[in-house]
Design goal:
Length: 217
């Protein structure tokens, strides 16, 4: 049985479909876990790098009939595939947006964990008729990560900046590391403001101060 990092465990817990794809799968650990645990029936693993994809193919050797490996850029190699849910994690937000924009297929659910441009990615998903149904910040091996799930909706959902930054589950879900994140970001913002005297940071500082107050930190 493979053991997942905290970040990948949260992603695995969010999967609730039979057929998924892991775009940029690299090592393939997520799909290995999901198949071992029988949480999914079939998975596509794909990566732009054949070298990375080979790692996944080797790791999934004992699930031969339950996966297909595709070497391609984003979702471009998924034409005619039926996917219930797509995971894209460990890439930049702009890259994730490009992948979703150029997808040849429509996908109802995404689980995303961008490394940068997180708010931009969330805004893009909302603008494209996805609702954010789960959204959390966690700390894994000394780094903070955002993991959020998006599901296609009829009605466009709008979130304010505070909701976009802090996510809907951070203040209620015990696995969240929001308190540590708020203090870490505030210290960083004050340090940058001190060095640069940039008053543009005040708006962001106010948002994090509001969260600090709400959390009674
Ligand atoms: C940091 S790893 C993340 C691995 C795994 N998804 C995770 O979250 O642990 C990023 C992977 O994305 C792949 N990648 C980068 N750009 C890609 C693209 N446009 N399409 C598919 N895979 C891509 C890289 O080759 C690499 O294997």
């Amino acid at each position: 049985m493979s053991k997942l990092s905290k970040r990948l465990s949260i992603i695995a817990d969010l999967v609730d479909s039979n057929t998924i794809c892991d775009v940029g799968c690299d090592h393939g650990k997520l799909v290995k876990y999901l198949l071992d645990e029988k949480k999914i029936k079939f998975a596509y693993v794909s990566d732009i790098s054949m070298q990375s994809l080979k790692k996944a193919i080797n790791l999934l050797a004992n699930h031969e009939s339950n996966f297909e490996a595709i070497c391609c850029d984003g979702l471009k190699g998924y034409k005619d595939k039926l996917i219930d849910e797509c995971v894209i994690s460990g890439m930049g937000g702009e890259q994730i947006i490009d992948i979703i924009k150029s997808s040849p297929i429509s996908i109802q659910k995404f689980i995303l964990s961008p490394q940068h441009n997180i708010i931009k990615t969330k805004k893009f998903m909302l603008e494209n008729n996805y609702n954010i149904t789960f959204d959390i910040i966690i700390k894994d091996k000394n780094k903070f990560y955002n993991v959020f799930k998006c599901e296609k909706t009829q009605n466009k959902v709008k979130l304010n900046e505070y909701q976009l930054i802090f996510g809907k589950d951070n203040f209620t879900n015990l696995i969240s590391d929001i308190d540590e994140y708020v203090i870490f970001e505030l210290n960083k913002l004050y340090a940058i403001k001190h060095q640069t005297k940039n008053s543009d940071l005040n708006y962001k500082i106010d948002i994090f101060e509001k969260a600090k107050k709400e959390r009674k930190l």
